[in-house]
Amino acid sequence: MENIERWLEEEGQSSEYLNRPVVTLSYAQSLDGCLAVQRGRQTPLSGPEALIITHRLRAAHQAILVGLGTVLADDPRLTVRLVDGADPQPVIVDTHLRIPLESSLMTRTDLPPIILYGEGADMKSRDALLQRGARLVACPITTEGKVDLHAAFRKLREFGIRSLMIEGGVRIISHVLARRLADLAVITICPLWLGGLRLLESPLNRSSGWPGLEGPVYEAAGRDLVIWGKMKESTL
Question: What is the pLDDT of residue 122?
Fold first, then answer.
């Protein structure tokens, strides 16, 4: 974990060329590559040792991002309650501004979320979200009608965010992988099969290769295996 933290610090200091934050992709999956039993249902996968690594990773980033689906399924607070350190700034991708006002992230008074939404979204809930302290950031949308994360990340950099951790969900992770927006990945593999919601629902586009890890490091964390490394284009 110390190596990850050192790498983040070094990359954060030399990331001006990116014009966006340094992005770390982090999630837990089963042996058959599933994130949950089914969409919209929370499925805790990581053991206690791996959870501590996740919370240390959160503390090493300025901001942490999830999609609306994760908010609806898990109702996370995205804090570092298991370790010492500062909580990261929560960021939510919510194309149509549908986040419930009673969700845990919207009731936080210490760090109200930044909400990345699609240009042209129905703004009926805008005032209520602003009254709760949320910062709303309009972003271009893709041809699929989703927030363009490449443009959204540039806006986050304008807010001074230099390091961003992404925890999910499936659509966000797929978008990040397809557009090669991650610089580091920290993946927890739990020793069970789910036969549920798979991480990738369709093949990724191939340019010079597929997204992979350069010189991956494998570490045991209790019953789980944690794999981490720099992102790179790889071939079979």
Answer: 77
